[in-house]
Amino acid sequence: MATVLDSHFLALTAIVTLGYQIFFFIITALLKFDKVTDFAGSTNFVLIAVLTLIIKGSWHFRQVVLTSLVVIWGLRLAIFLLMRILQWGEDRRFDEMRSNLGKLAVFWIFQAVWVWTVTLPVTVVNASDRDPSVQAEDIIGWIMWSVGISFEAAADQEKLSFKNSPENRGKWCNVGVWKYSRHPNYFGEIFLWWGIFVASTPILEGAEWLVILGPIFLTLLLLFVSGLPLLEESADKKFGNVAAYRIYKETTRFVIFLLFNLFNYELRKEVTESSIFLISALSFHCHNQYMGTYRYGSKPFFSLNFLFTVGVCHKKGQTDMNF
Prior knowledge:
- The structure is a single chain.
- By secondary structure, the protein is mainly α.
- It has 13 helices and two strands.
- 66% of the residues lie in helices and 1% in strands.
- It has a two-stranded parallel ribbon with strand order 1-2.
- Helix 2 runs parallel beside helix 4 and helix 2 (37-56) runs parallel beside helix 5.
- The chain starts with 9 loop residues before the first helix and ends in an 8-residue tail after the last strand.
């Protein structure tokens, strides 16, 4: 029952994550070699999950399962992204950063924050002494993870194959799961991490519920900061004047896209940036209200309600996000 720096391993994981990212930042800055960036981010998740499991040493079933899920996701994504960037030969995200050490450092620090925050559920589970039997939340979370990683893996492979085909140059990807969503890989990533959070809820008590910040942070990051906005802006510049692409945008969604497309149901809601944080606050309020009332089943569904609410909204003033 090891305790390192603090009982929840929060300081330990922060130090390890920061050190790991600094190491790769130095390689990138000195060698002008940014092909390991995504590899460093994805493998950092694996490092944190395995390290906390080993240090704790209790090897509870729930700890082993959640650690394994993170390892499978992290290694798959790391290998895929590394092979893709080696094949493509460049990472355009760093075109303006390679000669600006300050901007490059900010990026790597932000990546460290991303890793540490998103891994909070598995970190706290691995640090816990509590080991209740398998519950409905566990099974729901595992199913969500399975669905999420299936969509993410399928979307990644389909888009890679599409881009590697010479006949598809200058076209947008609309094959496979991309027929139904413009960003199924992001949908899968968000969904699987919410699944990991749901599977962690049986052991959460008191302030430990703050680990919900992990999936919330990831959701807001991909929907409103560095994920969809950048890709949508880029696609609009390339294909915005193409009628077929505009139709594609009108007939596809992002989160819970199967519900929208299979049942032809549209729900659009204009929200400001402050509304997004209000939704987060309401989610916390729901958890606080029901923590002492419902032990089984209710808690995870407040989190899913938050995910659904954010997913079907699009940011006010942004270019036709059409989630």
